[in-house]
Amino acid sequence: MKRDHQDICGADGGGYGNSSGSKGESSITSKGKLWEEDQDAGDMDELMAVLGYKVRSSDMADVAQKMEQLDMAMGTAQEDGISHLAYDTVHYNPSDLSSWVQSMLTELNNPVLPNSDSNSSKPQQHQQIVSSNQSQVYNDDSEYDLRAIPGIAAYPQPKRIKTSMETDSSSSTTEPSTQPVVLVDSQEAGVRLVHTLMACAEAVQQENLKLADALVKHIGLLAASQAGAMRKVATYFAEALARRIYGVYPQDSLHPSYTDMLQMHFYETCPYLKFAHFTSNQAILEAFATSNRVHVIDFGLKQGMQWPALMQELALRPGGPPVFRLTGIGPHQPDNTDALQQVGCKLAYLAETIGVKFEFRGFMVNSLADLEPKMLDIRPPEVETLAVNSIFELHRLLARAGGIEKVLSSIKTMKPKILTIVEEEANHNSPVFVDRFTEALHYYSSLFDSLEVSGVVPPSSQDLVMSESYLGRQICNVVACEGVERVERHETLAQWRSRMKTSGFSPAHLGSNAYKQASMLLALFAGGDGYRVEENDGCLTLGWHTRPLIATSAWQVAATE
Amino acid sequence: MAQNHHRGCHRRNHQETVGETEEKRSKFFINDHADILIEILKRLDGRSLCVAASVCRLWCAIARNNSLWENLCFRNVSPPTSSVRSVVLALGGYKRLYVGCVRPVRSLLGRVRRASMARDEVQLSLSLFCVDYYERLGGRNSNGRLVGESSPSSLMFLCKPVNV
Question: How far is the alpha carbon of A252 from chain B, nearest alpha carbon, in Å?
């Protein structure tokens, strides 16, 4: 009912549309039944009939489209003398909508006006828009037919008309006049963009690099017509595809402090890292409940942003804080600066301020698989409670054979009370390139969408750009790299679960405290309505709308018989 | 409060003009009784407290009193332990905690708040407060001396967003 009413009142420009709508409404209240009796047997649309219009069901789509064209035409030429349509034109049988709309359109195209010379060009252009839109809507070219794609991309008819309309009409009508045209165009281009991206991935998988190259160029063109998240995602994916096609694999040679800085901006702009830190900390706190000496091994210390909150909770624990020892793992620094030590000093300063006894050690390794438990000075469980924490680090081990197995068995020998893992909730490790590509496209689209909404005040575009750059590097790695270079081998929670279970770990459920705290944290973010915390069999996932994006899980060493 | 002050002045003037019958009545000047003033100010909300701080120098000094802001932070929640107090004071004080964390958290969560959440709100605010302190530390060397710049932006997300 609502849809039809909108169609009727769509012709807003002239006065006639509204009056006919109200006439329809009055007919509902007084003579609804009467109109229904006038219907042909089952042929007329019932809903329209109740409003007083006779439209064949088979004609509905056609009539709707013509109404749209009429609306556009009236909207665009508001100031330029189509008022005659409201007053001078004779309308024959307006209840027969399809013929009425047709007559209105022909009136527009062949207006009888005193000053028709300057305006006559317009209706011809409207007609042209109409036909080009129709051709865009009904043109069903296969994405593998390369000839078809340049045809549309090189045929920017709506855009050309837009510019000529701008020169004709006054500036005040430019805004409303160009809007309908752009909307249809960008929606169409959006769908085409996704199809082209998929086609390019297919071409790359089939090693048809010539086709892939041509498609990549078109992605660039199409991406330019989009706005916001879609454009950015498409640009990053296009760049990654181009790198793969040309064999320009990105080296992971950026200074780690630069990548740390990118991650800091990502930390500021959106809640994913904060969620990871707070939920892991909650699990660790519960494991540390009764101990007087505690030890945390952090597989990726970075800037140490996770630990101030944990130290504060330990400091305010009833019964006083335990002795807190932190071992931070990080990559080698190219210029031999000891970044880990700097972070350790900062944390030590904080610990002293809030009254927690603190010890720190840092280890620089190229890969977690290089760690040996005896290096880490693990003390027996009766003396010291151990927690191992890994935030977005474990998936990197999947690049080398045997890596993850070695690390998991090392962890088991350390006998931690709890192991907290946060990983991306997506399968970007499929051996089939197209599957990986599709998954990544959907995943990063959701991620970029959420970034778009959670704008920080003051709108710091620098933060946003840095966060996007942080994600862009991941995209590049997933799409363009192979072999040991491809470290962003994300896997789903289900995959990690089965891996952990076969390696001898049993799940530890995250309690309701973690859930409550996470929900509260998310409510603080702009766009808080879009974020979803969900409990998944003892694990917590954070997602954007219906799509879970990261998952926190906690594990303990399974008791052996 | 300001009215009391005024009334005190008027009464004095009135006394001077009226004469001996008024001499026996005791003069009450709120600024002479700082403890009563504090008790009254304790019951104000954050905004009024800031306004009260602009009344005069004495009130400004009193309004900076940590116990006033502590009351604001822990309103509707059981009073904090001494360990909480020492931690908060070390991290920058209750006024900073209230203005930087507790107030924005309460206003952002306002629409979904339930009474039981008050304690959790304060705890979350404390954690965010600590993270913010850590970020403001900047780089430190092993002597605890400041060597690098700080980037105080962790609490930016608590500011109300612009509606686009």
Answer: 26
